[in-house]
């Protein structure tokens, strides 16, 4: 195999003995490239390089960090069309979505470039006269970043940018399905002038690269986005490690969208279709559970079903495509398994769910909508991560809220209503980390915190200024100014 893309370790591009093909899900005959797979030894070398680089980088000029991150953000945005096309080609989201994600990644780097210059602490008087207290934030050390395939440049950006901004060094392991976007992002970071060892790219298997991060005592923190089972294994490893590692987990959702009788029908339909099916439903914030009150239920289901039949499912790079392919055969098999399971459980498939043929061979699936869904069914409780949504009927707002909260997840939740009373009550009482009113449950800003509750998230929030809670540690320093009445006691003074 001719490996075109190498790993970046300790300031050098490293040749690997093993590689893997990156396949276009819109056209399985199109190979995006051949990308290196790191061995355990290479992962350990990257960790060692980051460990050695940490002392100097953690004390580097905030201006230097600002300039590097701003260069990264500026280049990403300047190349948004090229990078967006690459992203859509390897992941399968439509070209407008791919370009939009790239712009968001650039904005994230620009935001954290500014945060470098806004680092702040507190200086307080002590309760003891003559003593001053200074509270500062310091970087935590080497940070291992493990990212998923569904947002192959935005999620790496919102982990890498704050890690570097706050003075940490990075070992970055992207998902195996989407190495091209990660590699392109890494090239930009390296070109911006990041010092040797500060940033390291190690593409490869989670069982090899991720495990090396979890086992190494030189890694101080792990930020992981991925599945619940893997997240739990990561958590267990971090907690039992010696020394223990700081931990941040994002693990998915089963997000409710409540539609009340008083909702604007056109708004509700677009919120449901956008939130549930755009990006092929492959978003942890997708509206996979739609809960509709009785008065509007039948009209809403009919309207959504008709809207789904008009959606264009095709090659992600084609003009006019609204829904791209599923990311790969494994994910497609999982989607089909849940569609069969839903029918076996007694739910009614009212739209979609069938495989589609297009000009090029790909993983095309018609968006599926189920009705007559009981919230105890597996399709209503387990994350499918595809273009599959369920509709559950509720008597009224109170029952809709109860159903919305009856889930092991708690990432995002939405409500469509024209009632200020119900909108306000829902914001306060739904058990989710993010709440949308008359908006899709998917779609968030880059400068505010992202994260959920229950089985969706663990640890400090990601994005915005709240990212400092994970990427820094707090130090409290006391000092005697020598002028107050307080005199420190010395040995033998009593």
Second-tier CATH architecture of the largest domain: 3-Layer(aba) Sandwich
Strand order of the largest sheet: 14-15-16-13-12-18-19
Distance between the termini: 77 Å
How is the biggest beta sheet arranged?
7 strands, mixed
* Unreliable residue stretches: none
Q: Beta-strand percentage?
A: 15-25%
Give the integer mean of the pLDDT values. Answer: 96
Apparent shape: globular
**CATH class wording of the largest domain:** Alpha Beta
Q: How many independent structural domains?
A: 2
Number of helices: 15
Q: How big is the Rg?
A: 24 Å
Query: Which structural class fits the helix and strand makeup?
Result: alpha/beta
Helix content: 25-40%
Instruction: Could you tell me the CATH topology label of the largest domain.
Output: Aldehyde Dehydrogenase, Chain A, domain 1
Q: Could you state the CATH homologous superfamily of the largest domain?
A: Aldehyde Dehydrogenase, Chain A, domain 1
How many beta-strand segments? 22
Supply database-style keywords.
494 residues; alpha/beta; Aldehyde Dehydrogenase, Chain A, domain 1; Aldehyde Dehydrogenase, Chain A, domain 2; 2 domains; 7-stranded mixed beta sheet; 6-stranded mixed beta sheet; 15 helices; 39% helix; globular
Could you write a compact summary of the structure shown?
The protein has helices spanning 40-58, 62-78, 80-91, 95-116, 154-165, 179-191, 206-215, 228-240, 265-277, 294-310, 329-345, 378-381, 397-405, 420-429, 468-471; strands spanning 7-9, 12-14, 18-24, 27-37, 122-125, 131-139, 142-146, 169-173, 199-201, 219-225, 246-250, 256-259, 289-293, 348-351, 368-371, 388-394, 409-410, 412-416, 434-437, 453-454, 457-458, 472-480. With 494 residues, it is of the alpha/beta class. It folds into two domains: 7-251 and 456-478, 3-Layer(aba) Sandwich (Aldehyde Dehydrogenase, Chain A, domain 1), CATH 3.40.605; 256-437, Aldehyde Dehydrogenase, Chain A, domain 2 (3-Layer(aba) Sandwich).
């Amino acid at each position: 195999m001719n490996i075109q893309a190498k790993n970046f370790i300790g300031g050098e591009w490293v040749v690997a003995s093993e590689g893997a093909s990156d396949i276009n899900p819109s056209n399985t005959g199109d190979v995006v490239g051949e990308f290196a797979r790191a061995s355990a030894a290479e992962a350990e070398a990257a960790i060692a390089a980051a460990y050695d680089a940490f002392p100097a980088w953690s004390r580097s000029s905030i201006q230097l960090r600002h300039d590097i991150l701003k260069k990264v953000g500026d280049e990403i945005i300047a190349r948004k069309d090229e990078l967006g096309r690459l992203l859509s080609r390897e992941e399968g989201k439509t070209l407008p979505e791919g370009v939009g994600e790239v712009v968001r990644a650039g904005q994230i780097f620009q935001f954290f470039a500014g945060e470098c210059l806004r680092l702040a602490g507190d200086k307080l008087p002590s309760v003891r006269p003559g003593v001053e207290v200074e509270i500062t934030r310091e970087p935590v050390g080497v940070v291992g970043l493990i990212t998923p395939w569904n947002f192959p440049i935005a999620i790496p950006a919102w982990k890498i940018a704050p890690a570097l901004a706050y003075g940490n060094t990075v070992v970055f392991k992207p998902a195996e399905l989407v190495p091209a976007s990660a590699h392109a992002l890494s090239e930009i970071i390296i070109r911006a002038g990041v010092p040797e060892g500060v940033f390291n790219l190690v593409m490869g298997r989670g069982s090899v690269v991720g495990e090396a991060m979890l086992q190494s005592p030189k890694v101080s923190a792990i930020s992981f986005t991925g599945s619940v089972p893997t997240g739990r294994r990561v958590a267990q490893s971090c907690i039992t490690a010696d020394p223990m590692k700081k931990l941040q987990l994002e693990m998915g959702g089963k997000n409710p969208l409540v539609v009340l009788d008083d909702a604007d029908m056109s708004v509700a339909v677009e919120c449901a279709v956008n939130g549930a099916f755009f990006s092929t439903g492959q978003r942890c914030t997708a509206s996979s559970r739609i809960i509709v009150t009785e008065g509007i239920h039948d009209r809403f289901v009919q309207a959504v079903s008709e809207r789904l039949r008009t959606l264009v499912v095709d090659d992600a790079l084609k003009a006019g495509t609204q829904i791209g392919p599923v990311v790969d055969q494994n994910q497609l098999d999982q989607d089909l398994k849940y569609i069969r399971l839903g029918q076996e459980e007694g739910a009614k498939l009212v739209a979609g769910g069938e495989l589609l043929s297009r000009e090029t061979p790909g993983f095309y699936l018609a968006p599926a909508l189920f009705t007559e869904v009981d919230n105890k069914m597996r399709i209503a409780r387990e994350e499918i991560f595809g273009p599959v949504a369920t509709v559950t009927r509720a008597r009224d707002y109170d029952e809709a809220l109860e159903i919305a909260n009856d889930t092991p997840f708690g990432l995002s939740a939405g409500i469509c209503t024209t009632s200020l009373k119900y909108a306000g009550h829902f914001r306060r009482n739904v058990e989710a980390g993010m709440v949308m009113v008359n908006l899709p449950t998917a779609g968030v800003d880059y400068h505010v915190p992202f994260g959920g509750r229950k089985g969706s998230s663990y640890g400090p929030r990601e994005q915005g200024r709240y990212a400092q809670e994970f990427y820094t540690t707090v130090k409290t320093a006391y000092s005697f100014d020598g002028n107050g009445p307080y005199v420190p006691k010395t040995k033998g003074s009593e």
